[in-house]
Amino acid sequence: MMSNDEGFLRRAIGLAASAREAGNPPFGSLLVGPDGTVLAEERNTVLTDRDIAAHPEQKLARWAARELDAETAAATTMYTSCQPCTMCAGAIDRSGLGRVVFALSGEQLTGLKPPADPPRVLLEGPALFEEARVPLEGYYR
Asked: Which of 6, 21, 42, 57 is catalytic?
């Protein structure tokens, strides 16, 4: 970690406390630009916004993808109160952000929560490979 990381992590933890006070899950994040200025900050709002994707990391990754050029994004750090979930990690990766620093690991978070219920959705597949691949062929080359 760098010398100023702890201060930014403390701000992320404060944003998490603010989210909880507002009735949301306690998670907070901020983006710090290459020059050390705070570019944006967010709190979890999944309950008050009635939006299952309103994680602060997701919201900031989307903001960065819209508002920052690739070079600035790559030099920007996200500070977050907890290790990003899989959904948020994918968004962060696609946004081009260069670094993420988190306070709690996913494993530490799991130790603070009651055991999770198994997923309730039934996933079936793969199926129709020959048909499904047609719109994708050549796209990622």
From this structure: 57
Q: pLDDT tens for residues 19-41?
A: 999 999 999 999 999 999 999 99
Structural domain including 125 reads: 4-136
Q: Phi and psi (nearest 5°) for 29?
A: -150, 160
Q: What is the CATH number of the domain that holds 36?
A: 3.40.140.10
Taking a C-beta distance cutoff of 8 angstroms, is the pair 47, 24 a contact? Answer: yes
In a domain, 141, yes or no: no
In the annotation, is 57 catalytic?
Answer: yes
Mean pLDDT of 74-79: 98
- Distance from C-alpha of 13 to C-alpha of 97, rounded to nearest angstrom: 20
